[in-house]
Amino acid sequence: HTLYENVVCMFLKPIERYLRSKQFKQISELKKDDEEARDRRNQYKKSVIDIEFVLRNNTNYYDCFLMKKILSDIENYKTMNFSRSVGETS
Predict the structure, then answer these.
(1) Residue 46 backbone dihedrals phi, psi, to 5 degrees
(2) Which residues, at least 6 apart from 20, have a Cβ–Cβ distance to it below 8 Å?
(3) What is the pTM of this model?
(4) N or C: which end of the chain has fewer CB within 10 A?
């Protein structure tokens, strides 16, 4: 969950916010009146699924050909030695 929250969501949430904002702006520009814009925004909100919900419930990525590589990279990263201080050289 830490990888998911600190890496995946860190990249995807800003993209999701940007795309949602862009869509709302487009709706506002095309509106005939405030009520129509509000209706279109509500319709858009109902048609879009939250990215976190989708990622939590979609496990198809386990079958992805890159999954073994990703897991291997994570294990390699976990075994790396980060104990040297900043100014220290090897």
Answers:
(1) -70, -25
(2) 48
(3) 0.53
(4) C
The b-or-e profile of 73-82 (16+ CB within 10 A means b, else e) is eeeeeeeeee
Tokens read off for 71:
């897991």
> Residue 56, by phi and psi: left (phi above 0), alpha (psi -120 to 50) or beta?
alpha
Query: In the predicted model, is pLDDT for residue 62 greater than 80?
Result: no
**Residue 49 to residue 77: CA distance in whole angstroms:** 33
List, for residues 14-39, the tens digit of each pLDDT value: 888 999 999 988 888 887 788 888 89
User: For position 64, what pLDDT does the model report?
Assistant: 78
